[in-house]
Amino acid sequence: MKILILSEYLHPQTSGITIRIEYYIKYLRKFGHEVIVYGPGNCPTANRILFSIPFYYINKDIRICFPSFQLYKDILFGKYQMIHIVGPNLFLLTIIIYLFCLLMKINICTSYHTNIYEFLQQYIENHSIFQLISNVGYYTNYYPTIRLKIPILHPENYTDLQILCPNYSKGYILSTGIDHQLFFFSKNFIRNKLISIGRIAPEKNLFRLIDLFSLIQSDYTLDIVGFGPIESQLKDYVQRKNIENIRFLGRIPYDQLYQFYQSAQAFLCTSLNESYGFTLLESLSCGTPIIYPKCRVFTKLYQKDFPQLEFDVNDDEEFLNALTYVQENTQILRELSRKYAEKYSWEKSTEDLLDIYKQISIF
User: Fold this and answer.
1) How buried is residue 359: exposed, middle or buried, by Cβ count under 10 Å (0-12/13-18/19+)?
2) Is the pLDDT of residue 65 over 70?
3) Where's the Glycosyltransferase subfamily 4-like N-terminal domain (predicted)?
4) Maximum distance among all alpha carbons in the chain?
C-alpha cells in the first residue's frame, strides 16, 4: 500500500501524538508499505517538507504547517491508496485537501488525538473567550470532517467528538502499543525514589503533585522529568513551600527515559486530562508501578489490574494508602506491571491501523 501521512507531530517532539505516529510510520515501512511523510523541516522522519512556524503559546516544540503546491501535486499524481492527515491542525486548510481527494477519488482519513476542549480549559480562564475559541475550533477542525463524511480515527478515550459533536456516532478506534525493547524490564530500583515524567503544563495538575509530595518529603525523593510553560512557576512554588528532595531534570531524550523509569520505586501521576497517557504505560513496561488518579481514562485502563494504586487526587489519605501499598508489595507489583504492558505492542497496533485503512477504502 502506498500511504501519504501529513503530520505536524513528529520527532524531535515527544508528545503522545508524536510517539504514536512515529511508531506507525516505522512499522508500516517495516511491513513493506511505501510511506511518504509531509511535516516540518526540523523533523527527520519527514521526507517531504512543509513550511512551518513555531507555536510558542502552547508548546515551543510544536510547529504549525502550511500546505504547499508540492503537496497538492503529490496527492494528484502520487497514486496513493490512503492519505492520512494527523490532527489537530490549524492552518493546513484540510477542507481543501478533503475536497481535492474526494473529487479525485482518493481515499483519505483524519486522526484526532488530543481532547482539545478539556485541554484549552486549562489555559483560557475567560468563559466567553473559551466558548469563542471552542466554536472556532469546532467549525475549522471537526465540522468539515464530519460534514464531508471523512473517516475519523482516534484513541479509545478521545472525548472531543462526544462533547462538541453530540450527533456524531463513532469513529475508528486506534489501539496503542509500547516499545518493549526500549522500555525493558528491570528488577533494580532505588527504594523511596519517585518519578514524574511529562510536560510541565497546567493540564498535568503538577502543583497538586507537589502538595502531595510535601506530605512525604522527609522519607522520599522525587525526580521531575520534562519541560513546559509553567516550569519556572512550579520551581518557585517548591521554593516558597520549602519542599526538599525534589529534582527538576528538564528534557531527557526519549531513548534515555527508560533509565529514569527503571530507577524509581513508583511513578506518580496527577493529570486528569488525558486521551491515553503513554508515560504510565512506559513506566509499567519498565516494571515500575504507577500511582494514578481517579479519572475516566485511567480508571478504565488500570483499575481492574491495579485497584489499590488508584486515588482521589484531592484525598491525601488515599494517596498515602496507595504509596503504602507499593512499599509493601513492590516486587510483585513490578512483575505485574511488566506483565500488563506486554499486552500492548506497536506491531499489533499498526496491524490494526492497516485493518482500518482497508475498512475505509472506498476507491
Assistant:
1) exposed
2) yes
3) 15-118
4) 66
